[in-house]
């Protein structure tokens, strides 16, 4: 029941909320022991803050929930591959697993030859079509 797709659907719901707010539609959830401990979506426009990416919001929320800065034994589900800034924060958080919906060939950390914490497991391609489509739809509407 608690599969990567199950939790990615929750992250996708966050992306849909961002889309409705005219934010870049990226969403994520942080899971610990099969329980969602943080939910977030992009808030860069709402907060007028370039650092208010979904991942940054979720890392802060999860750390507050856990009462510490490390996200060991946690998994972050994110609809789009994290950027360089977010990958740095994820690395510092020592998160155990990151599950990515769609890759971001231009701005994602993987093509920049960056890595997360050495113990962090990375999984890609969960609900890839849906996660990619919502971002493409968003930017198409801006043209």
Automatic annotation (TrEMBL):
<feature type="domain" description="CMP/dCMP-type deaminase">
    <location>
        <begin position="2"/>
        <end position="112"/>
    </location>
</feature>
<dbReference type="Pfam" id="PF00383">
    <property type="entry name" value="dCMP_cyt_deam_1"/>
</dbReference>
<dbReference type="InterPro" id="IPR016192">
    <property type="entry name" value="APOBEC/CMP_deaminase_Zn-bd"/>
</dbReference>
<feature type="binding site">
    <location>
        <position position="53"/>
    </location>
    <ligand>
        <name>Zn(2+)</name>
    </ligand>
</feature>
<dbReference type="InterPro" id="IPR002125">
    <property type="entry name" value="CMP_dCMP_dom"/>
</dbReference>
<feature type="active site" description="Proton donor">
    <location>
        <position position="55"/>
    </location>
</feature>
<keyword id="KW-0819">tRNA processing</keyword>
<keyword id="KW-0479">Metal-binding</keyword>
<keyword id="KW-0862">Zinc</keyword>
<keyword id="KW-0378">Hydrolase</keyword>
<dbReference type="InterPro" id="IPR016193">
    <property type="entry name" value="Cytidine_deaminase-like"/>
</dbReference>
<feature type="binding site">
    <location>
        <position position="83"/>
    </location>
    <ligand>
        <name>Zn(2+)</name>
    </ligand>
</feature>
<dbReference type="InterPro" id="IPR028883">
    <property type="entry name" value="tRNA_aden_deaminase"/>
</dbReference>
<protein>
    <recommendedName>
        <fullName>tRNA-specific adenosine deaminase</fullName>
        <ecNumber>3.5.4.33</ecNumber>
    </recommendedName>
</protein>
<comment type="similarity">
    <text>Belongs to the cytidine and deoxycytidylate deaminase family. ADAT2 subfamily.</text>
</comment>
<comment type="subunit">
    <text>Homodimer.</text>
</comment>
<comment type="function">
    <text>Catalyzes the deamination of adenosine to inosine at the wobble position 34 of tRNA(Arg2).</text>
</comment>
<feature type="binding site">
    <location>
        <position position="86"/>
    </location>
    <ligand>
        <name>Zn(2+)</name>
    </ligand>
</feature>
């Amino acid at each position: 029941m608690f599969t990567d797709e199950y939790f990615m659907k929750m992250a996708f719901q966050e992306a849909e909320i961002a889309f409705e707010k005219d934010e870049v539609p990226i969403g994520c959830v942080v899971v610990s022991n099969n329980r969602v401990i943080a939910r977030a979506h992009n808030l860069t426009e709402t907060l007028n803050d370039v650092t208010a990416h979904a991942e940054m919001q979720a890392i802060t929320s999860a750390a507050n929930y856990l009462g510490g800065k490390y996200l060991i034994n946690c998994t972050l589900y994110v609809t789009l591959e994290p950027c360089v800034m977010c990958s740095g924060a994820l690395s510092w958080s020592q998160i155990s697993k990151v599950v990515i919906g769609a890759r971001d060939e231009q701005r994602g950390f993987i093509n920049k030859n960056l890595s997360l914490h050495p113990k962090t497991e990375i999984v890609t391609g969960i609900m890839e079509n849906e996660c990619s489509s919502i971002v493409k739809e968003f930017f198409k509407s801006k043209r």
